[in-house]
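Table 4 source record.
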Amino acid sequence: VTGFGGTALSGIYRPKLTTVKIPYYDIGAVAIRKILKEIKKETTEEETIVLPVQILKRESTKKID
């Protein structure tokens, strides 16, 4: 069983929930930079931005032998 987001709540459940941690701060920083470029009428081309995620393995997953 896994969760998505990586909030602090995922570490207090029993068993502790394995989650995919999302870089919320980085998502916001990239978004605001793009918005500011649009406001300033700077030419921006369409681009795909991939930010790293992290899997936090906890007690809700285990290796199956």
